[in-house]
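Changelog note: in this version the structure field was regenerated for every chain. One regenerated record is shown below for reference.
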Amino acid sequence: MHHHAYLWTGPKARFDQEALRRPPHPDPPPAGSRPELVQRYREVAAQFPTSDLPPLETAYWLVKPRALVRGTWPDPSAATAWLSDRLTEYAPRFASPTQREARRLTGLTASAAERLASGGDVALGFYLERPSYLSLAVVKCAPGRGLRDLPCPLDR
């Protein structure tokens, strides 16, 4: 088992493109479906795994391009340190003064450490100076984690 880190920042309008943040349904539209539905399914099926947009389900980061991995660690404490460093780096740009508070950032880091140590994933998101958004994620990569046995990006 190990952990992969991901970071995305960009325009809030792009982040809001939810269709590109959802994996395509495992079954394509049935024969006889409207052509625009079939075309949209094909677009999403082609774009989801290659898009740098954060997926709605954190584990699906694992199907994204290997180049999006910002770090990999076998130890959850090293992954937590990366997350803490990113929070410190981006905090001055957080849109909400409350989210910039050191006590809050310490609490987020402690919570992330507990979650990672117990085998979970961590995903955090923040509005930055408008209209930008920051997505941070640390994903456990382990065989048999469920969710369609997502592949390790380092194996591709």
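Spot check on this record: Residues 102-117 form the longest helix (16 residues). The chain is about 35% helix and 20% strand.
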